[in-house]
């Protein structure tokens, strides 16, 4: 059921994101009404099926579609310690950071096996129909400060429902930051989560053994297609170490437990204290990141580990040698300018240049490009217009970058199947394919589309490789100077 709950989230949040853009309201309404109407109908069907406790294929299909959408959008989704989300018969609160609006809820729902309840902003329940339906879908509304009071939503009733859900041994998801921004800065946590946890224990005479699990959602580039996610999950931990204090001084206990929640989230995240520090961290990583130096860790796990290592060194330098921070900024700025001027990537500076090897690699690449080009053309014909349209439409629907990924997935869920259906009908009409050939054709459209995206990324990589080879021949000294600068940045950051 959590899948449909997430989609309910989408309609309200995305509607709000474009509310001040009247020139696209009609386009948005046509798109979103089509999506939401079909989703609501599916929700009603699934809800009544769940009431009768029957497994139904439609539920599985819809959940599969959402999961496929997420997995197609992101290249790698790595989950560490997924077993920590299995609550058994104990009540559980999942707390998580909130950098990517709707996607954060989708991702948590995708990796959890048990049914999930969510606390959601009350503006989502702005009609009697939505209120009745979405409450049935395990969403608990809460009026947030600054957003007024939604008809039919009473915060006391909502809190009582949270206590009831947890008292029954179920799982509740809360984003304690309250709002969502694309940044590594972990904003101030609201105290409501701690209050719900401790009050639930009090109402059950401290016999629940309620567990809180911190989930860190680390995106490499949350809005970017085919970027990566590392989901790091902390060990479940009870709240009884604050219970006695709560009975004596509720305010102090809630504040202390909230501080503990913050410490736990920081351990599963790459966090910075300010936006400027985040920019410095990203700039240093961009210069030092390389795939040409072997490491035991791979992919997004390696990226997050390296970001944490850089962040720890920055924190250390701020305390003992703050002058190094200013020098790092200057050197990074200088390197960025030179790399941009030479049009090469920083990781190529770690490559060992062997002319024969490079020539052999270039020759192999040219042969591969010629062989793969027909497939890439097939992929372009069947996917490029949809890709361009989505890329054009999403920024029109919302200028908030936090909405780009969920919007793109929602648009893609509708647009790509419709376009593939159109291609299939056209080919069937023109070529009269058999059903077997038609099935192969339909399957090839998305598969070769993904290959085509990778193919053009590969062409970009080859262009950098060509550029690097010619620079090593014509401007070898300039490249050696850059390599020396990169080494100095490493020494400035890591050496005592």
TrEMBL record:
Key word Transmembrane helix present: yes
Biological process per Gene Ontology, one example term: phospholipid biosynthetic process
Keyword Nucleotide-binding recorded: no
InterPro entries with a match to the protein in the record: GPAT/DAPAT, MFS_trans_sf, Plipid/glycerol_acylTrfase
Domain of life: Bacteria
Keyword field: Coiled coil, Membrane, Transmembrane, Transmembrane helix
Alphabetical list of SMART domains matching this protein: PlsC
Coiled coil stretches, renumbered: 300-345
GO MF term set: glycerol-3-phosphate O-acyltransferase activity; glycerone-phosphate O-acyltransferase activity
A Pfam family it matches: Acyltransferase
Protein's recorded name: Phospholipid/glycerol acyltransferase domain-containing protein
